[in-house]
Please model this.
Amino acid sequence: MRVGIIGAGLAGLAAARELVAHGHGVVVIEKSRGVGGRLASRRVEGAVVDHGAPIIETPRGSALDDLVRSLAQDDVVQLGPDAVAYRSGATRLAKLMADGIEVILGVRISALRATRSGLELAGEQGNAHGVVDAVIITAPAPQAADLLEHSPEAGHRVTVLRSAVYEPAVMILAGVRIDPPSSLEPFAANAPFARITAESAKGRAAVDGVVPIVARLTPGPSAKMLDAADADILDQLSPPLMTACGASGEPDWAQVKRWRYATLPTPLDARVVNPEGSRIVVCGDTIAAGGLADVHRSGIAAARSLIGGSSSS
Model:
């Protein structure tokens, strides 16, 4: 069996590894220029910042904990009994997971067409990217609905997926001249900030005395500012962010990052989204109960549902 996986985030790569481990062929197709999804990190002014998941939760005994322990450890920073980070950024985990997996980057699949031999992966421009026996979709629910609507398995599942209501997140990445904190969240996060993370606590030294900070807004302000200009967001929120961090003046540098589909407070029922016998299976945070370990587990379950194995981990 050959399976096409839409999305190279944690769930998609978990599904790919599970399928390969059972002797099946996979191709992972990712619309972005790199792997990782919410395991997103970038380098700004010489500093590494995680602007997706602030930490990687690894509950003891979970499949994700087992995975992290089985991969290279040279870059891992233990943040507690059930959480880790990577010095070089959260994307490192995704890159380790993708090693040996066929991944195609920069391609957006817009339709799944039925052929005599399987499902054709059709791109936005109508180009075909191969024929597979089954498909796993890890995209957020609205995008998954669009794909299913243009597939042989369109129907009630599309309506269910379109019912999902996400909360967006606006993130401010900033370089602040303060003493490097020893803890991950040393600052009080009052509205409009939901969480302020000191990236230096992940084993990343300050660059020229500048500590990288990631501040995530609460859902309400995030929704209001989602489509605002970066300059307007920074003008309004840099002063309270500096005050929260105990710094004066302005940040040495600052950027804005947006997640339109950041969190789904009430995940959809997996049994409704993926009826028994489906050859197009949806996984990821659309159906995961919450947390990266559950997202990872959903990818494994999607793979096992296609190969006839148990959906438990």
